[in-house]
Amino acid sequence: MVAALKSNKGASYKLLSIIDEEKFQISISVSLIFEYEDVLKREDLDLNLETEDIDSMLDYICKIADKREIFYLWRPYLKDPKDDLILELAVESESDFIITYNKKDFEGINKFGLQALTPKEFLDKIGEI
Fold first, then answer.
1. CB neighbours (10 Å) of residue 64?
2. Average pLDDT per consecutive 10 residues, the chain (129 residues; last block may be shorter)
3. Within a domain: residue 54?
4. What is the span of the domain harbouring residue 36?
């Protein structure tokens, strides 16, 4: 999300720009949307976006995303508890992929039938590159 909002030239931006084209389904949980909000509103990120713009984008994601309720029964699994937010959502939503630039942070997710892909790898997989 941060990479997509910092530059309109990369794979992250392209992926974010096609989230409503029904080529794939995104899922969201309350805890993950709060995490996105916290990160995106940090002053040191210098995204050149107004708070209202970030709120509008997150509202839109909430509108189009598959909303999931998460019950934290098996934490922790990954090294970073914030990455567990994403893993739990992916498992609950029966997703096939977690899209991330930090693939090493998601080692072992194949146990859950998941694969970590970069935005570019995912775009290639869905025929967008």
1. 12
2. 93 96 95 96 91 97 96 85 94 97 96 97 95
3. yes
4. 2-94
